[in-house]
């Protein structure tokens, strides 16, 4: 009798992720890693203006559809217009000038950002999603062994 195919019986689960570090309740109020203010994570709008399209954006992005994640701000140049507007590392770009960024490839996202002098963005701070852009094992395992529930 042939043994059953375990991949058919058990779904392919993502790799284990350790939970966040536990912070004692009395220390949470003063800890920068802990916040109960959900407004910090709500989408917000900002308008970045440049004089010409060849001018630097003042920030870098990473991620994209080909990496199975959204487009995230990975670096903000100090004293840039993006910095003054409050853009920060870990912000997910949801929309730019009415273009949905949640399902764009990285190259297409960069094109949309660079082709405009007035960039109306909707962003949200989403550090969990941003940290997952660095998880190379997740991207390799999902492309070699796709599971519809974990994309």
TrEMBL record:
Residues 45-114 form the PDZ domain. It holds the Pfam family PDZ. Gene3D superfamilies: 2.30.42.10. This is PDZ domain-containing protein. It comes from Batillaria attramentaria.
